[in-house]
């Protein structure tokens, strides 16, 4: 993913509260539009970078169940 995309997405959501960010994620998922996937990827990357090992393991276990 291009670094400029990461910066643009971060700038677009800067200052949003948890409820607003939740709305963004839910809207992107409901729409199902491919062009929204990079934004969700940036959200995941930001979370992954601050998550501890237990949170990461829990997430990946849940994710694995969705693809099995």
Automatic annotation (TrEMBL):
Induction: Expressed only in the forespore compartment of sporulating cells. It is found in: Spore core. Keywords: Sporulation. One of its GO terms (biological process) is sporulation resulting in formation of a cellular spore. Pfam families: SSPI (PF14098). It comes from the Bacteria. Belongs to the SspI family. NCBIfam families: SASP_sspI. This is Small, acid-soluble spore protein I.
